[in-house]
Design a protein that fits this description.
Length: about 375
Amino acid sequence: MRPHLASLAQDIVAEVRRSIPEYARPLDGAYGQALRTAVQQTIGTFVDQVADPATSHQRRDDLLRRLGRNEALEGRSLDNLQAAYRIGARVAWQRIMRMGRRHNLSSSVMSLLADVLFGYIDQLAALSQDGYREARGRSTAAREEARIRLAKLLTTQPAVPPAALHEVAAAADWQVPTELTAVFLGDDTTCAKPLLDEDILVDPADPPRYLLVPGQLTPHRKTGLRAAFPAGRLIFGLPVPVSAAADSLRWARQTADRTTGTTDTADHLPELLLTSDKALVDQLAARRLAPFAALTPKQRARMLETLGAWLDTRGSAPEIADLLHVHPQTVRYRMRQLDKTIGDQLADPDRRFELELVMRALRFRDHPTTKTVARSRAS
């Protein structure tokens, strides 16, 4: 068999390249050398084992595991490599049959050679499979580690330089989008992670507290997220440039503190704005509402309720009375008292605007689910 190995290797290489387009690249350079070496090594070791089954085949084993690893690292399946082994076996067997006829080998010897050859191909496939699984395992672990790091980097402020972000994203096999949306998860939210889309980054904490979703949250995407988190609450953030991912997450967290159930941050922007700085709201409230300080708590509550209804609606006494469930005459009395107490503020557009800011901020802070007195009464 040995005198035929050089020409057999050429025939196998030619048939593999003809049958498998992915292997039909030019043979000059490193690729061609690697392909020829692989074929020569495998058929040479086969002949060595036929001559002496005790012959070491460590070099062959290392080579075949490396071939499997290369397929994994290139992102391919093992289909082409396994097909190449079968093609090599077929070409080799055709050569063996011609050799057998020329040398009048018995049918028993030919049968034994067939068993050995096709058993040998199974060895090649198994060794490459070992290398493939090993590389995939390492690759998957490295990818998951990079995705964890990426989720942390995206929610860190100040934002990391784009070059650093793209480097980690490449290791995570994650396409950096133009914008993304954070989704905050409530304390009791249960994660069904296998149902998540592959492009969603998950907070590495256990249990996770947030997700980072490329692009805007379409209705289809929201439906998928609700299916992936069947229990608990989701707070959908605002779509932002990638560099502002931390802002989207921060706003979603603030919305979670001010609402109940699954909700959209976009539906609560006034609340977020007006309650983002409690101390500043208190300062403005102290200035604009100082004239009510001398009233009893009960009187103060009634006057502020009437003031809030008027600021919300600019309605007549009967309209406000209907909202507050009091007599119109009561409203007229309170409005006269308001005019005496803060009439100068009600007449000044800037002061009136500040009063409305204060009233809404206090209402949002004390009753997060209430939009305005008018809307809440009407509902």
